[in-house]
Amino acid sequence: MNRVHIKTYGCQMNERDSEAVAAMLRARGYRIVSDESDCDILLLNTCSVRDAAEQKAIGKAGYLQQRKKKQPDFVLGILGCMAQNRGASLLEQLPDVDLIVGTQKFHQVPGYLDNLRAARDAGVPIGETIVDIGEEAGSQNTIKDHLEPESGEVGVDRQVNAFVSIQQGCNMDCSFCIVPKTRGDERSRPMDEIVAECRALAARGVREITLLGQIVTSYGRRDYTHTGGVSPFVQLLEQVHAIEGIERIRFTSPHPRGFKDDLVAAYGRLSKLCGYVHLPMQSGSDRILRAMNRPYTRERYKEIVDALRAVQPDMYFSTDVIVGFPGETEEDFAQTRELFEACNYDMAYIFKYSIRTGTPAAVLGDQVPDEVKEARNQILLEILQKNSLRRTAGLVGTVEEVLVEGRDKNGGRFTGRTRGNRVCVFDAEPRLVGSLVPLRIERASVSTLYGQLVLAGVES
Question: Looking at residue 65, which CATH number applies to its domain?
């Protein structure tokens, strides 16, 4: 009973948490399997940002409970944000779940599974569900392990990019957001430990690092001093930039408040910092931004976009937008649409507002009808599709630097990303995985580029 499958819902932070749990389990002798039908233990790492995300995970867990009737030794666990948000109350809907572990206790999962296995091996009834959603000082420092790739085709299974968690929790208190409840207060990892982790990844062949945090640009603001007008986060970027072997740096998710002059300037002087920014807007209406408790204006937001494009004219942008926030009028939405068009996004996550119990916005009146939310959502999606297709079409005939990541999902060709975070598909050899190669773009869809290697000695 040592085969584990982890199914992850939600953001890149959740992906990184699942990766760390898998690495810790493998170190304890567990096998990580990719097919859930082959596992003895199934862990759902869940999301609570929207109610739909929670309902999806609850539905999956409910279905899996039926498996326990056929396989009494099958272990089902719920981890992450939904576990933190709902805790033991989940048992009212899911009485057969064996393990509920919150966001600050991921590192305890191997020990809890060891206990469950030992009890079953001894023929002892498990008894009550293990529930651990308590806070734990220093828990931000436990997400540091990385899953070793399975052996397979030489070169292809090499890990060339990695997520590195640098900060957890959030003190921003946006009125619509459940994250401060599910992830706790802002906590940063020591800078030297992060840099050491990145060095170790570089030594293993990783070429691209993505720094992760709930508000990544707030990194270290209570732990380190500004030096010469440079924030702790930019100081960290500088140190990662200096690591031999690391060729690209990205980060997510920032807050507009974090884009001071030092961070904007970093895009002009740190060559490894990719020209791609995820910059959550949420709304283009100052009135709605105030109701959301977002401490910036539409004018300030556009100033940030313009400043970044002044440093890198071909900067790529993605964003988050919520439509249908309580009280959002047609005029408010018109302002959002105007700013959305003006920023010319390459990608966006557009959400229809959903009530999250326990947030200030949940008790606001003047809720927007679902059909209005849907109409506004579609308007922005149509704008985004046109923008994105125009941007990718403009790349046809150009040569882009691409980091070769491995085979595409069909296995016949290879895939990688441009510095602007565009997915590319092309023919190549396994030996090129982990290499930066020039790719001539021959055709484009809304989100994918197709091309051919062009450098002598590198062609497929």
Answer: 3.40.50.12160
Amino acid code (one letter) for 363: V
Residue 69 has a pLDDT of 85
pLDDT tens digit sequence for 111-138: 999 999 888 777 666 668 999 999 999 9
First to last CA, the chain: 44
pTM listed for this prediction: 0.93
List phi, psi (to 5°) of 349.
Answer: -105, 110
Q: Could you tell me which residues are beta bridge partners of residue 7?
A: 44
The whole-angstrom separation of Cα 219 and Cα 222 is 8
Q: Which domain covers residue 421, as residue numbers? A: 399-453
Domain final residue pick, 391, 410, 440: 391
Query: Do both 319 and 345 map to the same domain?
Result: yes
Distance CA 260, CA 267 (A): 12
Q: Residues 159-187: pLDDT tens digits?
A: 999 999 999 999 999 999 999 999 999 99
Q: How many CB atoms lie within 10 A of CB 359?
A: 18
Summarize pLDDT for 404-420 with one digit per residue, the tens.
999 998 888 999 999 99
**Rounded average pLDDT over 39-66:** 93
Q: Spell out the residues 6+ positions from residue 236 whose beta carbon is closer than 8 angstroms to its own.
A: 166, 191, 194, 195, 211, 219, 220
Question: Are 186 and 171 contacting, i.e. CB atoms less than 8 angstroms apart?
Answer: yes
Q: Within 13 Å, how many C-alpha atoms sit on residue 142's CB side? A: 17
Mean pLDDT score, 195-203 = 97
Q: Measure the CA–CA gap between 38 and 34, rounded to whole angstroms.
A: 8
Residues 214 and 167: beta-carbon distance below 8 Å: yes
177 & 116 share domain: no
Nearest-angstrom CA–CA distance, 284 and 328 = 11
Q: Which residue type sits at 31?
A: R
Whether a cis peptide bond, with omega within 30° of 0, leads into 283 is no
